[in-house]
Amino acid sequence: MDLVILAQFLLAGLSSGAIYALIALGFGVVHNATGIVNFAQGDFVVLGAFVAYSILVSWGLPYWLAFLGAVSLAALAGVLLERLALAPARSREILILVFITVGASIFLRGLIKEIWGKRPFSLPPISTQDLALGSFVFDPQYGWILGVTLSAFFLLHLFFRYTLWGKAMRAVALDAQTAALMGIPVPWVVAASFALAGALGGLAGVLVAPVWPLGFESGVLIGLKGFTAAILGGYGSFPGALLGGLLLGLLEGGAAYFASAYKNILAYVILLVVLLIRPEGLLPLARGQRL
């Protein structure tokens, strides 16, 4: 066993896990606010990546604008999904609302295909100079993915704990009716939750696109992996999203080293096993706890 090569596979898996963690947190934010699973979450990732591609490659603008544009447009897509499709729905049944998100996912895939075409795209790397530590070669893109993801989780922790809107989101997640009686504008808080989920997807898209080529249908697979990470860590749990994503990424990295053909199957197997054996996940929410 070549330990250097194994370490590089595990590092790549860890960076993939950071992307899954961002997607898992997006699933959790929407679930805590509404009780539904948003199956368009993976398509927010692809939308963010393709918007960043237009800003960077087609228009020749700097990377910081690509980040800003991708996060903003994906957040807008999240708000539009909630305001135009979910909020006006006559039925409040959870299953019906979930089906609406499935329809939104199909719509987004078709929209992305019509605007950007069927060909997969990759973004230019944020940093191009590899770092060599002996025989170990470190791709700086992995460092960007891990650094930005951990920073995003830290900032969101501060947001939920210390800002009025963050506390409002937690209150609505805990009990929407009581929050409304206390004067919290629940519909706008729910819309803000979808905006945050979209922004997390857009951020994940910009980070992952230099590493993985993304096509208009890539949201299905990447969304499934994010959903698996959310289930693995504890659905709706803030620390669980981070733990589940990083653990799934490490397992995929190890699987890619030993048998790369089975890497993408691993998420399906983990999802099935966790749902059968421990459906509450590794870090389940305490009773009444949200975020």
TrEMBL record:
GO BP field: amino acid transport
Cell compartment(s), UniProt: Cell membrane
TM region positions: 6-29, 36-56, 62-82, 94-112, 142-160, 196-215, 227-251, 257-277
Gene Ontology MF terms: transmembrane transporter activity
Annotated membrane topology: Multi-pass membrane protein
InterPro entries (alphabetical): ABC_transp_permease, BCAA_transport_permease
Domain of life: Bacteria
A Pfam family it matches: BPD_transp_2
GO cellular component: plasma membrane
Keywords: Amino-acid transport, Cell membrane, Membrane, Transmembrane, Transmembrane helix, Transport
Family to which the UniProt record says this protein belongs: Belongs to the binding-protein-dependent transport system permease family. LivHM subfamily.
Protein name per UniProt: Branched-chain amino acid ABC transporter permease
Organism: Thermodesulfatator atlanticus
